[in-house]
Recover the amino acids of this structure.
């Protein structure tokens, strides 16, 4: 939730535009300097140096240096404890991010304070927001539970994305990037600048496409961004529309480990009819997401501000797939079908090949709000009362568009599965305050109450069909507290404790028998560290301990579309040390490094393998107990570095690298079911030229990014499953190979 606070004329005076964007001073300068601008907006869900938590702000300049068309996760891969993933192997299309080993369903993402995580899966699909970085002012990466946020509880990290602020001068930009595997990004941006000292309109249109590293791993992405703002001394009104559309060829099945060193670009998707036949051409994922936000912020007094943001996020789409040898009964096809054979008799057929679409349509709507107080004197330096009301409706249905036999299907398709709509209501309210006990010692307190009601179609042993519409209720109380101590000029120590609670996801219910229904999970998060800032050095060292109760972890089972099925474990934890340092010995040279050493364990875990007889009929489970076993996808060591040098004005050369140690695909700490450690080296060149006045052209930027310069053959994601057959344990591993050496080049024109 985006909130605005202005501490009188002093803060208004700070709401100036960057030096490079300033205009000649007009006659109404005084009025322009006192209007309420987005630069003076403080996001209530963002951490500060007063909250005693662990965070990093990634500026627009840093984002644009990496923005060649890859998704947001790849622009954040130089921040501490981050591991990125890409299904197609290029950072375009379906991508993901893990922070401290926690996946995207536990990373709370907000856009201007409005929740982005899908209400049922808790996931964030950056593929639905192509080229969002071009419209982003900054991103705050909060590690750990962090301050209270809107949406599902942060269970490892939060990403707080804020879109572009006010630009007082009219502008236009044309950005193009091209590169390996047919990657191409085109972006056009324009803005009116201030009109009559109060109004601005900004717009962007983007297209991103790539053929992908893996076979047929192509992406066709489009995005539009439009915002209009009115501001005066006490009021800020901003309307925002953001829409993204994606069509991608499916590459989410990964690659069997037997092919990893034989044909690492092979794509299994679309080959269900047989590998000897051409892959189905329309094995695609298609989805559109539309965001509508309206920020209303009003300065009620010199010390009090109220902001409200109504919003509506609408999504809809499907994935299409060819499925062979499907039982008639599953699709409501009457049968059997009798077919003549070569010897003159009839074969009885009860299966057919089909083409099916699985649909999801969603509406997420509501409002966020915050009343923020910043007294001019007293112990309390800042206090906020905020929260949100969020409603959700999800439609899940499946349809056939073609069947080989047994059914005549109209052009509009025919539905064979249509669940009752899912509904979710999420209401939260929080209060937080910063208190200065002494000149050097500060205290932070934050208390959130969250209530959730979730209605969905889930397994029910008492229902005739085996499923029924059910309502599940949760009530969570999440306290947080922190201390900050200013040791000396530029050196601060901090410590904090936070509790976060989170409900299970949809598949945790729909893919789990009612007898094994999961429960909510709880995180107790301890953080302590020091931060140092001087003219040449910015550094931080942080220790964290994250203790979980009933954490939902991988069970080793997959559902019928490959989603992981989770199970609760009573006690587990993550603990580690994060270090980050930026050193500028001279203005032309910058050296930044990050490293995280961690230990991620489940104290007691039971792994289950399904047992099948010779007819491949399920007969039970084989349990295996583990103690102090590693949590899946949680490397013990991650590291990154960036070295950037400017030999002549405008020319910047950079080397960037990232490392991740071994990651296990399940919770058994078995090396044969793991991702090998990898080190990846990139290099980048940027040249910024300010031409003499020519048709209004202000800047020309040329840039080249060479990824994986050492052609490392690595994977950064995968999954595993297994079962017992013939008395033998059998496991199957799948991985997502990443591109070897590849490049991206961009030309950016700014008017």
């Amino acid at each position: 939730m985006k909130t605005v606070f202005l501490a009188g004329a002093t803060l208004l005076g700070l709401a100036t535009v960057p030096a490079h964007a300033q205009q000649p001073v007009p006659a109404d300068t005084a009025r322009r300097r006192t209007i309420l601008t987005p630069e003076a907006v403080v996001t209530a869900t963002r951490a500060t140096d007063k909250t005693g938590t662990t965070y990093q702000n990634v500026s627009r300049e840093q984002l644009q240096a990496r923005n060649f068309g890859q998704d947001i996760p790849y622009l954040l891969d130089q921040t501490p404890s981050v591991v990125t993933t890409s299904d197609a192997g290029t950072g375009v299309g379906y991508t993901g991010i893990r922070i401290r080993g926690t996946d995207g369903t536990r990373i709370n993402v907000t856009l201007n304070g409005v929740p982005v995580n899908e209400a049922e899966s808790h996931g964030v699909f950056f593929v639905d927001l192509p080229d969002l970085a071009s419209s982003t002012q900054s991103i705050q990466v909060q590690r750990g539970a962090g301050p209270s946020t809107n949406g599902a509880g942060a269970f490892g990290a939060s990403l707080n994305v804020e879109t572009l602020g006010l630009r007082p001068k009219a502008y236009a930009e044309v950005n193009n990037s091209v590169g390996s595997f047919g990657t191409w990004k085109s972006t056009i941006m324009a803005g009116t600048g201030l009109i009559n000292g109060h109004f601005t309109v900004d717009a962007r249109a983007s297209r991103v496409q790539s053929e992908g590293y893996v076979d047929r791993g192509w992406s066709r992405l489009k995005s539009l961004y439009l915002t209009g703002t009115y501001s005066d001394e006490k009021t800020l009104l901003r309307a925002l529309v953001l829409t993204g559309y994606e069509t991608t060829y499916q590459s989410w099945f990964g690659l069997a480990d037997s092919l990893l060193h034989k044909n690492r670009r092979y794509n299994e998707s679309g080959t269900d009819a047989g590998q000897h036949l051409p892959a189905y051409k329309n094995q695609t994922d298609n989805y559109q997401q539309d965001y509508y936000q309206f920020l209303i912020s009003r300065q009620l007094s010199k010390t009090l501000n109220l902001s409200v943001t109504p919003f509506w996020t609408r999504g809809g789409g499907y994935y299409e797939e060819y499925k062979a040898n499907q039982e008639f009964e599953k699709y409501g096809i009457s049968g059997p079908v009798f077919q003549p054979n070569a010897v003159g008799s009839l074969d009885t057929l009860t299966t057919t090949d089909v083409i099916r679409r699985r649909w999801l349509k969603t509406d997420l709507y509501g409002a966020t709000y915050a009343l923020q107080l910043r007294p001019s004197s007293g112990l309390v330096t800042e206090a906020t009362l905020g929260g949100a009301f969020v409603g959700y409706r999800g439609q899940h249905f499946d349809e056939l568009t073609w069947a080989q036999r047994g059914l005549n299907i109209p052009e509009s398709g025919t539905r064979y599965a249509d669940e009752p709509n899912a509904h979710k209501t999420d209401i939260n309210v929080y209060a937080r305050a910063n208190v200065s006990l002494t000149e050097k010692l500060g205290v932070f307190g934050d208390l959130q109450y969250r209530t959730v009601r979730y209605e969905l179609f889930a397994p029910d042993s008492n229902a005739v069909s085996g499923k029924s519409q059910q309502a599940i209720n949760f009530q969570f109380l999440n306290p947080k507290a922190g201390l900050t101590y200013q040791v000396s000029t530029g050196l601060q120590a901090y410590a904090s404790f936070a509790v976060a609670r989170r409900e299970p996801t949809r598949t945790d219910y729909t893919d789990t028998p009612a007898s094994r229904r999961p429960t909510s999970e709880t995180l107790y998060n301890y953080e302590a560290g020091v931060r140092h800032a001087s003219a040449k050095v910015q550094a931080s060292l942080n220790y964290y301990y994250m203790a979980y109760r009933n954490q939902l972890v991988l069970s080793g089972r997959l559902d019928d579309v490959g989603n992981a099925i989770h199970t609760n474990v009573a006690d587990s934890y993550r603990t580690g040390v994060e270090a980050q340092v930026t050193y500028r010995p001279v203005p032309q040279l910058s050296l930044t490094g990050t490293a995280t050493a961690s230990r991620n364990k489940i104290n007691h875990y039971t792994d289950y393998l399904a047992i099948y007889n010779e007819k491949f009929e399920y007969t039970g489970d084989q349990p295996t107990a583990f103690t102090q076993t590693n949590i899946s996808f949680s490397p013990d060591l991650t590291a990154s570095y960036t070295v950037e040098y400017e030999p002549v004005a405008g020319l910047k050369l950079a080397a960037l690298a990232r490392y991740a140690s071994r990651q296990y695909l399940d919770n058994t700490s078995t090396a044969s079911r793991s991702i090998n450690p990898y080190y990846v080296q990139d290099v980048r060149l940027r040249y910024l030229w300010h031409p003499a006045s020519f048709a209004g052209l202000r800047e020309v930027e040329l840039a080249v990014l060479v990824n994986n310069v050492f052609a490392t053959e690595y994977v950064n994601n995968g999954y595993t499953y297994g079962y017992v057959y013939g008395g033998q344990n059998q496991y199957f591993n799948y991985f997502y190979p990443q591109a070897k050496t590849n490049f991206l080049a961009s030309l950016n024109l700014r008017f």
